[in-house]
Amino acid sequence: MSKLTKEDLHFFLLKLHSLTGIVPIGIFLAFHLAINSLRTVGVHQYQFSIDLINNLPFLFGIEVLFIYVPLLLHSALGFYVTFAGRMNVRRYPYYRNWMYTLQRITGAIVFAFLVYHMGTTVVPKIYYGKELFDAAPFLIDAMNREFQTWGGRILYLAGIFSAAFHFANGLWGFCVSWGMIVGPSAQRNASVVFLLFGLVLGLLGAATVVEFSLHPVPVAPSFTG
Amino acid sequence: MTRETIALKIKRQDAPGAKPYWNVFKLPSLPHANVISCLQEIQRNPVTADGKTVTPVTWDCNCLEEVCGSCTMRINGRVRQACTALVDILEDPIVLEPMSKFPVVRDLQVDRSRMFENLRKIKGWIEIDGSYDIGEGPVFPEKIREKAYALSQCMTCGCCLEACPQFTLTNDFMGAATFSQVRYFNLHPTGAMNKEERLEAVMKSGGIADCGNAQVCVEVCPKKIPLTESIAEIGRETTLQLLKNLVLK
Ligand code: HEM
Ligand code: SF4
Ligand code: SF4
Ligand code: FES
Fold first, then answer.
1. What is the pTM assigned to this prediction?
2. Which domains does chain A have, with CATH numbers?
3. In degrees rounded to 5, what are phi and psi of residue B5?
4. Which among A23, A73, A74 is the best mutation to test ligand 1's pocket, defined by most ligand atoms within 8 Å of the CB?
5. CATH match of B5-110 with 3.40.50.720
6. B189: preceding bond cis by omega (within 30 degrees)
7. From first to last of its 249 residues, what are the pLDDT tens digits of chain B?
8. Ligand 1: residues within 6 Å at CB?
């Protein structure tokens, strides 16, 4: 490719924003919510999933490369995109304009939620050096405490549903921007399918919240491997 | 609806950058009047509702049949053409404002040069003359001609940009009309010879990637141009062009 100008870079970064929303962040979100919902099946399955993740080789590197860097990039560009436009849904209250507006609002909510969520999970986990098999009891204990109050439950439900909507609607936007759904009826049908998908993700998350709220897990001291 | 009089509340501005202010005019309500005929009435007798004689309100218009796009303004908050805005079916008072996403020249007149600059950037024309004869043009398949006809009706009025949340007075977003014109000229068999240049012109800052898919543009386009289809189509072609540029160039 010829010399990269500032104008080309702009286009390139916006494409990257769009792409990072799906791979890896969106994929991560879908797996994160699905795996966490194992909690509704049993404590064992849930603890096993956490143990598995926390015993991955190069875990920190994987997290930085595939989650933190793309997430920071997507968020920074997301705020840039949000402030480049000016919402006008009150003057032009069409369905898709609502979706456009909600995409931006839920993006901001998810960002705030993630600061809190990561600040109360991964950050202390790393700070207190809870690695390998020590991670699961530590994290489950943190979640237990989180869901003892209505404040915690509502916070998590808001974060989960915002993320699920943002991902589902973002998936639609991605398919339009990259030219995978072109005609009006294809776009309408895809919108229904993606929103249903978002609803399923949201419900998986909500089920986990309910399970934690009703039956906090008595944390058994884990064996150290 | 029979009304004796009709009030026009008009946002005015004496010069570019001057402070806007409002004037209210009361006119006898005539059958079949449209916003332009009301403005002509005000021009003949520029006296406000409270009896002050003011400078006549200025506006742009030309065709008077919704094909030139020059009379575009916000009427009761919504962007549209003044020449086809029938007074009988408008709410009283009728509020007239210039478009907000283009610099105001005076009163209801705005400067839409940004749209024309963008058409220049995307080569919004078909190259025919060279220093040599490029021969006869290829045949235009009927199916494609039909599609192209729908796109050809764009009158560069600016409605789609005025209503777009991603298009502001200060940013460099090109907007739906420009993307649709890229598609239009690329559909033409001769125009397709400059296809890549047009695509690359919208793969820049302010280009296709800046569209947020709010799809307000297609709702307000008076010519019912399938703008969102054009946007997705150009999205698809620029994506392929990007891959091509990365891998093959
Ligand atoms: C952390 C803060 C976040 C912010 C501020 C943010 C912001 C945004 C914004 C403004 C858009 C719209 C871009 C456009 O339509 O042009 C967007 C798109 C998107 N976001 Fe996010 N987002 C965030 C987090 C996330 C998360 C956690 C996910 C994963 C589920 C995600 C997935 C997506 C997807 C898939 C798109 C669609 C891209 C496209 O339109 O092509 N975002 N984001
Ligand atoms: S696409 Fe429609 S709204 Fe936009 S400038 Fe052309 S005619 Fe006007
Ligand atoms: S789809 Fe939305 S952001 Fe894109 S040009 Fe149309 S109104 Fe603007
Ligand atoms: S005067 Fe030409 S569109 Fe109204």
1. 0.93
2. 15-214 (1.20.1300.10)
3. -130, 165
4. A74
5. no
6. no
7. 568 899 999 999 999 999 999 999 999 999 899 999 999 999 999 999 999 999 999 999 999 999 999 999 999 999 999 999 999 999 999 999 999 999 999 999 999 999 999 999 999 999 887 788 877 888 999 999 999 999 999 999 999 999 999 999 999 999 999 999 999 999 999 999 999 999 999 999 999 999 999 999 999 999 999 999 999 999 999 999 999 999 988
8. A 18, 21-22, 25-26, 29, 74-75, 78-79, 81-82, 103-104, 107-108, 110-111, 114, 163, 166-167, 170-171, 173-174, 177; B 212-213
